[in-house]
Each structure stands twice: as structure tokens, then as C-alpha cells.
């Protein structure tokens, strides 16, 4: 099974089995990873699943939609590697992906 590593704002690392077809947000919520709230349930209508994707993985992700980009405009610390975890579905190709979590979601 593929693996996702979430790194909390304080540096705590949590490795989670990445069930294929589940989103990175769903995997974090299912495994009680602090810093991923997913308040909208994955509808891309909030930004409480904001994460910083390790740059080595960015090219492997689907393109960001206009809606996702609009939602990310509302986060206090948007970066070039910012993504909403509800918009990224786990696949075998993402085995080992690293997501850093922003401090504003704690």
C-alpha cells in the first residue's frame, strides 16, 4: 500500500497508509492527523485541508483547478507548492508523497 507522510507545523511526522482513490484530506482525517480539518468534507469550498506538497512531488499531481486556486487565495501563507489535500487522490504513483501542514490550521 502506498504511504503518505504528513509533517505537522511543529515537525512531528506521521506516516499513513495511503489507500488508493482516497484523497489526501480523507486519509488525514481517517487517521486523526492534526492540522487537516476538512470542514467542507472535500467539496473544495474551504481551505482547511491546505498543505504544502514537497516540491519533488508537484509534477506528479493533477493540475490545480481554478476553484482550488481561488480557495487557496484565502489562506494566510499561500506558497507555490500549496494545494488543497481534498483535491489530490492517492495513487500508487504517489507512494511516498510528503505533505507539510501549515501552522494556521491548528
Describe the structure in your own words:
The protein has 106 residues and is an alpha+beta fold. The protein has one domain (3-105): Beta-grasp domain (Ubiquitin-like (UB roll), Roll), CATH 3.10.20. It is built from two helices and five strands; from the N terminus they run ββαβαββ. The chain has a five-stranded mixed β-sheet. The longest helix has 7 residues, at 24-30. It is globular, with a radius of gyration of 12 Å. The chain starts with a strand and ends in a 6-residue tail after the last strand.
Beta-strand content estimate: 15-25%
Shape: globular
Structural domain tally? 1
The profile of the biggest β sheet is:
5 strands, mixed
What is the topology, as strand order, of the major beta sheet?
2-1-5-3-4
Q: Which class in CATH terms?
A: Alpha Beta
Order of helices and strands: EEHEHEE
Report the mean per-residue pLDDT as an integer.
96
The N- to C-terminal Cα distance equals 28 Å
Helical amount: 10-25%
Counting helices, strands and paired strands, the structural category is alpha+beta
CATH fold label: Ubiquitin-like (UB roll)
The low-confidence parts are none
For the secondary structure, the number of strands is 5
Q: Count the helices. How many?
A: 2
- The CATH superfamily is known as Beta-grasp domain
* The CATH architecture: Roll
Instruction: Give Rg in angstroms.
Output: 12 Å
